[in-house]
């Protein structure tokens, strides 16, 4: 968004975000130490009640906690020092939007904007309005908006404070599917053109797959795994690997199209995969594919007498017991791209799978997530 | 100005001054009562509500004692050169402020409690300081509460009698308010004058309440709670 503006933080971005927090509640304790990249979208991912929203509130200063918070070289909290919320140059998008009911859309947008010194503004009012498609909504009152529209206003209002860190607390979870589809493209554009770091709390794999670059997995107030999205999701020891919606993300490029069969070809590394055609895609487009572990099966030989179209040569890297008895989770690498496959333990034994083995991956279906 | 008009004018002046003072004093008390979890909250709430249950004469009696020459505050005011407050307009104002306190605090407290606390967090993340949040979020959202508080306080002060009689007496132009004037007329069997004032008050009260309700429902439509 502020691509054209000189980026004074550019030198510091390498320093990233340091967050360390401890706080105790009656039934739950948060104890987290994180070093996050200073750009891109980091997903805080975990089941509800794992403490991800509490952590986000600690970062914002909304939840008092012992700890330390440094954002790209700027210290917000350390030892006895803690900036009050209104002095932290952050923006926070709440789950249920928190639009002021006594103010119109335009007045809501102006609320934060006019509290920023004009010299410190990096995002122009009209730009944000255009960006989130709010031109025709400016005079409306919040209660006359749909759920998706409300969330778009909340996002624009947050951006208009020219934050140095954008915190988003499940911004889509209160929305129905149609509104989610309405708002996801806006979030993607945000991701593609915004240079400020975003921390995005979510429990929905689809959203994370689509938006995140980096992922922090949490359970019971602690971090269980973290790292770049693609790598981390493909780890067999991450807490979600054994679950039903375990999946990996493949970053690919559209390279071709087959009009006769309504398919298009996506390439990643030196591998190719066929997708169902989508009129919005054209050659050269970068896409993210989500491949569920349960949609990946393994064959020892290349079978041509079966229906699955996407067969890739791969190597077994690791085999691990699944969460359910009698299941196994296998990590494979095809080219440089990791995949997970969910199998029964019996299949693992019958195929005599072991690390290092060359096999064929059969991918039953692929979802384009972004 | 005839004595009747003098009583009307005095009553309106007393009610206006009391309402203005109480909005200033009652707002922080109501805010604290609505938000605090301090152990003193319940006792303070009870003290604020006392004038609702006490007979006005009891309140007036104690005020007379405390503000009088032997009372703590009486000695203080004399020491400060203000003189004694009983049987003066200022004394009436002090008494009215205490007597009408619950009528200001309770509507405000309810209005504050109805504000979603998340909106204050939102305002904080949008760079509003605590003071700024109070003026830009709390006051506009509690506007119907402020209106109710102001109207109830004003009307209740106009209608007070027992406290006034105890602490103000019946000095024309100083403490002789409408309700006392009506009482005097009735005592003197001047029913037509009493009617004139009483009917006026009845009409006044009715108009006040009707405008309050219609204003509140108009605000209510604009604001989702």
TrEMBL record, chain B:
Annotated ranges, domain ABC transmembrane type-1: 8-214
Keywords assigned: Cell inner membrane, Cell membrane, Membrane, Molybdenum, Transmembrane, Transmembrane helix, Transport
NCBIfam families registered for this protein in UniProt: modB_ABC
Membrane topology, as annotated: Multi-pass membrane protein
Function: Part of the binding-protein-dependent transport system for molybdenum; probably responsible for the translocation of the substrate across the membrane.
Acetylation keyword on record: no
A GO cellular component annotation in the UniProt record: plasma membrane
Classification via Pfam families: BPD_transp_1 (PF00528)
Sequence similarity: Belongs to the binding-protein-dependent transport system permease family. CysTW subfamily.
GO molecular function: molybdate ion transmembrane transporter activity
Transmembrane regions listed in the UniProt entry: 12-34, 46-68, 80-101, 134-155, 194-215
Cellular location(s): Cell inner membrane; Cell membrane
UniProt name for this protein: Molybdenum transport system permease
């Amino acid at each position: 968004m502020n691509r054209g503006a000189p980026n004074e933080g550019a030198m510091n971005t390498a320093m990233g975000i340091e967050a360390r927090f401890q706080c105790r509640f009656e039934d739950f304790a948060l104890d987290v130490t994180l070093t996050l990249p200073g750009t891109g979208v980091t997903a805080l991912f975990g089941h509800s009640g794992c403490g991800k929203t509490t952590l986000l509130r600690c970062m914002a200063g909304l939840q008092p906690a012992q700890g330390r918070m440094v954002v790209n070289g700027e210290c917000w909290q350390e030892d006895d020092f803690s900036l009050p919320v209104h002095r932290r140059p952050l923006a926070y998008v709440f789950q249920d939007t928190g639009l002021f009911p006594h103010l119109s859309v335009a007045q809501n947008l102006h609320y934060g904007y006019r509290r920023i010194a004009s010299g410190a503004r990096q995002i122009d009012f009209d730009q944000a309005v255009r960006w989130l498609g709010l031109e025709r909504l400016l005079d409306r009152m919040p209660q006359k908006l749909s759920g998706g529209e409300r969330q778009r206003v909340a996002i624009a209002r947050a951006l208009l404070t020219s934050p140095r860190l954008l915190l988003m607390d499940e911004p889509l979870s209160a929305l129905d599917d149609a509104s989610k589809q309405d708002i996801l493209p806006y979030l993607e554009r945000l991701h593609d053109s915004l240079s400020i770091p975003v921390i995005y709390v979510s429990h929905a794999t689809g959203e994370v797959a689509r938006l995140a670059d980096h992922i922090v997995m949490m359970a019971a107030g602690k971090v269980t795994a973290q790292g770049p999205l693609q790598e981390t999701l493909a780890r067999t020891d991450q807490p979600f690997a054994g679950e039903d919606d375990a999946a990996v993300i493949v970053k690919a490029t559209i390279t071709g199209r087959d009009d006769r069969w309504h398919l298009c070809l996506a390439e990643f590394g030196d591998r190719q995969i066929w997708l169902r055609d989508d009129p919005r895609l054209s050659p050269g487009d970068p896409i993210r594919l989500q491949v569920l572990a349960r949609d990946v099966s393994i064959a020892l030989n290349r079978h041509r007498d079966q229906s699955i179209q996407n067969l890739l040569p791969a190597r077994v890297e690791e085999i691990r017991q699944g969460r359910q008895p009698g299941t196994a989770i296998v990590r494979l690498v095809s080219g440089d791209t990791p995949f997970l496959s969910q199998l029964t333990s019996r299949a693992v034994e019958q195929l005599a799978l072991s690390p290092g083995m060359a096999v064929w991956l059969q991918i039953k279906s692929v979802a384009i997530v972004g | 100005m005839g004595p009747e008009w003098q009583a009307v004018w005095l009553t309106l002046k007393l009610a206006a001054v009391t309402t203005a003072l109480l909005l200033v004093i009652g707002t922080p008390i109501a805010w604290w009562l609505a938000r605090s979890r301090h152990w003193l909250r319940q006792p303070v709430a009870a003290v604020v509500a006392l004038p609702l249950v006490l007979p006005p004469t009891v309140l007036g009696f104690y005020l007379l004692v405390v503000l009088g020459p032997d009372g703590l505050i009486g000695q203080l005011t004399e020491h400060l050169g203000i003189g004694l407050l009983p049987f003066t307009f200022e004394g009436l104002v002090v008494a009215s402020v205490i007597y009408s306190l619950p009528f200001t605090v309770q509507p405000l407290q309810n209005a504050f409690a109805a504000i979603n606390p998340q909106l204050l967090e939102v305002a904080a993340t949008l760079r509003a300081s605590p003071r700024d949040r109070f003026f830009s979020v709390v006051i506009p959202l509690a506007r119907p509460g402020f209106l109710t508080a102001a109207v109830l306080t004003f009307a209740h002060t106009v209608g007070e009698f027992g406290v006034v009689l105890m602490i103000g007496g019946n000095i024309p132009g100083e403490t002789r308010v409408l309700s006392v004037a009506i009482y005097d007329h009735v005592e003197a069997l001047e029913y037509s004058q009493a009617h004139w004032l009483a009917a006026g008050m009845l009409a006044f009260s009715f108009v006040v309440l009707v405008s309050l309700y219609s204003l509140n429902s108009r605000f209510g439509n604009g604001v989702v709670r």
